[in-house]
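Please fill in the sequence for the structure shown.

STRUCTURE ENCODING:
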């Protein structure tokens, strides 16, 4: 009986961990750069999509995999970004892992 309780508890914990890990999604965001705020090893860009959704994109050398993948974008650029998307109560965020295009 003790083993059954331990196994059930372990299964519950594993299910919880896997469900939390899947809350973040890897997707793409395409839109216009409205603002840029510089940080320590990169910057945060405010992106507005065609559907009028606003995303705050964290773009850093580390998250992009090194300086060879890092690009500086400008206000007014049309960008397509890939990365890990998550939402807070009132904001959308993306941790950029790839800059697909800048126009």
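FILLED IN BY: designer on duty
SEQUENCE:
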């Amino acid at each position: 009986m003790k083993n059954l309780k331990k196994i059930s508890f372990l299964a519950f914990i594993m299910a919880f961990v896997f469900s939390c890990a899947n809350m973040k999604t890897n997707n793409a965001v395409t839109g216009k750069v409205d603002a840029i705020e510089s940080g320590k090893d990169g910057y945060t860009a405010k992106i507005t999509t065609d559907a009028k959704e606003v995303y705050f994109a964290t773009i850093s050398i580390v998250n992009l995999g090194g300086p060879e993948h890092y690009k500086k974008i400008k206000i007014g650029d049309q960008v397509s970004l890939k990365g890990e998307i998550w939402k807070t109560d009132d904001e959308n965020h993306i941790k950029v892992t790839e800059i697909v295009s800048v126009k």
